[in-house]
Amino acid sequence: MSEVPPSQDVVGDQPIVLEDVVDREALDDLCKSIHALFGIGVRVYASQGALLANVANDLELCRYVNEVPGSRVACGATVSAAKSVAPGDDGEVTHPCFTGLAYHIVSLVHEGRRVGRIVLGPYAPAGLREPPPSLAQADKRLDVVQASELAAKVPRVKQEALHRIAGHLKETLELIIFSSHKAWVTSKLHLYSVRESYRELQDKTTRLEQTLTRLKEVDRLKSNFLATMSHELRTPLTSIIGYSEMLAEGIAGELSSEQQEYVRTIHAKGEQLLRLIMGLLDLSKLESGTMSLRQAPAQIGPILKEVITTLAPVARKKEVELALDSDDVPCELAADAERLRQVFINLVDNAVKFTPKGGKVTVRARVTAGAAASDGGDEDDDESAGAALLAPLLKQVEVRVSDTGIGIPAAERAKVFEAFYQVDSSSTREYGGTGLGLSIVKRIVDAHGGQVSVEGNEPNGTVFVVNLPSAQTRRAALPSRVPPALA
Fold first, then answer.
1. d(CA 120, CA 5)
2. Of 116, 165, 248, 407, which is the most exposed, with the fewest CB atoms less than 10 Å away?
């Protein structure tokens, strides 16, 4: 009967490699226990011929036979045949040795397929009385009498006992193979699962990177489009505003009161559209990083007074009280005064717009003590804390723009600084605007190294808080931002 095909690995559909799935230590312990009980040598081979376990005594008869050249060759041929002989239908076969000893070969089966074999022996059959003629024929120089004496020392085993030993060993080894293979399959499945998860993660990462690249490109195209269209719209709009001013001044002739009203409406809407276009231009410059800040020593007081003066007529027209509360403590800022003026005009104008008649808008400025200077190192926490106590407290300016208007829901406060975002985005909203002002405010404040946030104003209204570091604070923080190679 031909050898049965090797078992297939259920994970990778490859032949089982017995040496990969069997616990060698457990296999050795089992073979040693069989040898200790019955004195029979035990060898276990994989289906491809690899020796997995070898527990046997060096028999005196075998040593003597191998001392003679002719019998040594015969001994080698016998061992090779025992290793490769195919067990019969029952999975067992006895292979005789020319010395009269024998080997018993048993197949190891897993999932109906042979995956290896057990070789028991050499042992002396119970009926062996004297060496067979083949011993003398192997080499004439062999002393048959001495060989017979040595053969008498080899353990005798009855065939029935041998079958029981082989059956017990086979069942035990197949159980070990089953358990080991089960654990091996489990580990393989886990490994494949991890690999598949990693592959899926890589695929998702690749897709996300591609999506991010496309989004960046779309964002760049959007910024370019906004910048180009804003620039192209500003030129004719400037002419419209200019000609409407000339018409209102009567340069082209006297206008009736109704015509004056039309011209003023054209001029007002043109100014409104120009502010929108300038906001788009500022936003595109901030997003592309092309807006430069002309930083110079500045004080917050004069900037806020100019903002209040500019917006006072708007507040009076709406009957909203506009107040400035400043402690007038000098604190030098390294800032672009014009851009800061734009920040607070946006904030105060918004506060006035969303405050009903009879309400109040307050701009309060204070100089506060900020965090101590830090070099951003990796010192021990205790040492850093001690250094912070000894370091001078650096100043910062806090400006709070509070109103008694409609307020912003807590869930919406984190979104108001996004471009084009409006709390009320319906087509029937009461208040106009494009949703660009606060986005521009945040970007300009960030560019100055500051922070802007929004809070509730009990019982109603909103408070926008702007923190701007002093020039000293910004200079102290500068070394920590310098790369180590340049520090």
1. 23
2. 248
